[in-house]
Amino acid sequence: MSKFGIYFAGRDIVLPGVYARVIADGMTPERGVPSRALAVIAQAEGGEAGGVTRITRPSQIRELLVGGVGARLVELAMMPSGEVQGANDIYFIRVGNPVAASLDLGDAVLTARIAGRVGNAVRARRTAAQSGLSGAWDLYLEDTFRGLAEVYKDLGPVLEVSYVGGGTPPTNISVTSSGGVATLTLGSSTFSSDALPTLDRLVDAINATSDWTARLLGPLVGVRTEDLPAQTVALSGGKAVISLQGKAYEYALANSAIAKAQAAAGNPSALAWTFFSGGSEGPTPTVADWLAALARAESLDVHGVVVGTGDLAVLAAAAGHVNAMSDAKNRKERLLYCGPGLQASKAALMDAAKEIVRGLGGSRVVVVAAEPRLVDARTNRLTVYPSFYTAAMLAGMKAGNRPEMPFTNKELSIFGLSYEYSTEDLEDLLENGVVPVHFDPARNKYVVTQGITSYTRDANVIYRKIAGMDIADYLNKKIRLRLQRYIGRVGDQLTIKQILNSVVGLLQEEVRGPNNPDGVLTDGIDPQTGQPTPAFRNVEVVMDGFDAVGVRYEAHPVGEIAYILATAYLTPVRIVARA
User: Domain Tail sheath protein subtilisin-like, which positions (predicted)?
Assistant: First the structure.
């Protein structure tokens, strides 16, 4: 600090005057909210093979996923009920190794954007450019299944150079390539891609010479100079055209929804409408394929995971996935929503669901035993689907709503069930940690009987209820988001108080009341003392003197009304009549 002045806004100031600054740190609201996205892992006729396809609106389902089990599961998760909304952010992971259909153009190989049989419905046509640009081609693409069409004009030529010097022009110009560096030779002048990485910069450099001029040709932009293929071009009338050849298709189709391209060494030629071929779904997915799909879900921040199979080995791996991802180290809490495959009888369905619970049940696994009747879009007939389709509906309802929302008595958009359960059947499934669905005659709707996990060890309502687990995960995720900014700070009294205030502010946001109908904590009566108690209390932040800070608090989560017990006491009354 200056000996004679002051220290203000990070600077020593000596000259007298008025100095001002604005601190707007407090204008950043602490609104960190955990993700409510959903992961759906299944086979489909579309979706990125070996990757993740994000779906944020129903209209994308046919466009990106086309059809199959996975597409229907995503649809049900997004539109599960006429009563509550579904998921609005889904990560779809395609299982298996589908083969993409392709078409050889000679100088480029086109490959269908969506791997699998659906790629065989893509066709292409190539004609000489209608603009008359020498050596250019027009490419037409059409996906006859999805009803998409794309046109790419004047592909090939990208650069025209002209000799404007006073001497005799050279016979030809050349492009050579070595070690990933392309070099354009114009007479005694050379231009390399390492110095001029893009064609627009190459053109500027050529136009700066006294003997040559250049201009860009065709529709492509941002072309890399290093992508110019080796070629020798004769000058005609002092001009020469340099072609990008097959690389032009890679650039043109970079954002195509129908196909992508790979340059090849063949010769181009005109092509009548020709369909792609070779597309297939590949071999039946193995457990290893499902494990690879689950591994791709590890990096995602999601509320839940839906698995489109009833295979016990796959479900066991999925249960291991959600448990591992939800531990304190990985910090990506999630629930598994699943169910058995189609069963031949009601008893078989109940037994299959209970077998899943016995094998891998727990607080993070939701097992559903309800085979829904839905309309098959391709046959327009009511069809019975496996229980994991209903599980997708539950997962979508949870992802699309607040964590405290219970499933109990929520309606489902289905036309029926393969098997109707008696009261005894429903009780049996619930006692064994299975979620059933039943028909409510008063509402004329099929509803979720009770939203429970497959935790059966005791009656702990956090572990037992889906909403309870969701609240616990929600609070964990939110407090991590809120306190993340303190990592790396100096551990002093002021910072510890700031952490305390952040925790209190977070908890206060979640207190449910007339002015805050959305909240996961509630005031109530202490069951031990019978006295009123706030929604949270005993918040404590302690630093150990080294580098660890402990945060502890007691909070009271909202519950779920599953039972209403009404008791009427009828007592006699003396009745007297007099005349």
Answer: 286-454
Q: Which pair of tokens denotes residue 327?
A: 């531990």
Asked which of 275, 307, 333 is the last residue of a domain, the reply is: 275
pLDDT at 274 > cutoff 60: yes
Query: What are 172's two structure tokens?
Result: 């030809």
Q: Residue 328 and residue 24: Cα distance in Å, rounded? A: 34
Q: Are 52 and 58 in contact (CB under 8 A)?
A: no
Strand 90-94 with 38-42, pairing: parallel
183 and 211 in a single domain? The answer is yes
Return the closest-CA partner of residue 41 out of 319, 301, 357, 296: 296
Helices 493-509 and 466-483: crossing angle in degrees, nearest 10, is 150
Contact 235, 171 (CB under 8 A): yes
Segment 239-248 mean pLDDT: 95
Q: What is the mean pLDDT of the chain?
A: 92
Short-list 215, 201, 207, CA closest to 189: 207
Phi, psi of 306 (to 5 degrees): -110, 130
Q: Give the per-residue pLDDT at 3.
A: 63
Question: Which amino acid is it at 536?
Answer: F
**In the Cβ-directed half-sphere of 429, how many Cα atoms lie within 13 Å?**
30
Closest CA to 563 of 457, 449, 454: 449
Pairing of strands 549-555, 335-338: unpaired
In sequence order, which residues have a C-beta less than 8 Å from that of residue 172 and are 6 or more positions away?
232, 233, 234, 235, 240
Q: Is residue 13 part of a domain?
A: no
Residues 228 and 202 in one domain: yes
Give the global pTM: 0.85
